[in-house]
Amino acid sequence: MELGYRGDLTVRATRLRSLFFLPAAFPRATMAWQPQVDIYRSRDGWIVKLELAGVRPQDISIAAHGSRLHVEGVRHDWIMEPSWSHHTMEIAYNRFERVIELPCDLTQAHITVECRDGMLLLRVAT
């Protein structure tokens, strides 16, 4: 019985840290940020638009499994010099991941990719 109580306290402590100290609560390397997404229905299928400013096309991976579209990659801070120290950092760098559930099977879908003006545009023909 005592072990369950300690485990419950550990869960509560982790939840409290995540509420008040999210960046410090967990190691940053394990957290992936999620880009914003807009999804449109088109005549031919779906248009999925992700906001990925500063991410190079070669740093993005896209896969379809069943009805899920999986987009992942990394955004690097390329504009940083050794003599600089940060004052404010609000932009998410490091690994990102977004899983998008569409109401159809993507096994036979044809997906075209376009990167333009900080946006990733996926045209999913079903």
Q: Which features does this protein show?
A:
2 domains; alpha+beta; 2 helices; elongated; Immunoglobulin-like
Structure explained in plain terms:
The strands form two sheets. A four-stranded antiparallel β-sheet has the order 1-2-7-6, with no helix packed on it. Strands 3-4-5 form a three-stranded antiparallel β-sheet, with no helix packed on it. The chain is about 20% helix and about 40% strand. It has helices at about 1-20, 20-25, and strands at about 35-40, 45-50, 60-65, 70-75, 95-100, 110-115, 120-125. The protein is elongated, with a radius of gyration of 19 Å. It folds into two domains: about 1-25, no CATH class; about 30-75 and about 90-125, Sandwich (Immunoglobulin-like), CATH 2.60.40. Mean pLDDT is about 85; it is low at about 1-5. The chain has two helices and seven strands, in the order H-H-E-E-E-E-E-E-E. It has about 130 residues and is α+β, with helices and mostly antiparallel strands.
